[in-house]
Amino acid sequence: MITITATLYRLVSAGMRAAILASALATITLAAPAAAEAQKNAPTILITGASTGHGLAFTEEYARLGWHVIATCRTPAKADRLNALAGKFPNVAVEQLDIVDDTQISALAEKYRGKAIDVLMNNAAINTFRFGARNFAKIDYKWFEEVLVVNVIGPMKVSEAFQEHVAASRQKKIIAMTSTGGSIAEVTVPIAIPYRASKAGLNMAMRSYSIALKAKGIIVSIIAPGTVDTEDYMNAKDPSTVPANYQTMIKGNLLAPRTAINDMIKLIDRLTLEDSGVFYEWTGRVIPW
Question: Is the pTM of this model over 0.90?
Answer without folding.
Answer: no
